[in-house]
Design brief:
globular; mainly alpha; 74 residues; 51% helix; single chain; Non-ribosomal Peptide Synthetase Peptidyl Carrier Protein, Chain A
Length: 74
Amino acid sequence: MFEKIVNIVVDQLGCDEALVTEDASILDDLGADSLDVVEMLMAIEENFGVSVPDEEIPNLKTVRDIMNYIEANM
């Protein structure tokens, strides 16, 4: 699952794959803005068949947060 998320993050944010670690902050380390986050989460929803409600978005700060959310909601 991690590799699939890494691929989505790199595709959506255009960041260096080496920067995408489980503890990488989406905003601070990977340089995403709010629109990037929404687009990235839409791609994750499509790829993993999960739905991320708007009120959950602020809780998804790191790649690990995203992985944990997907595992809990698949």
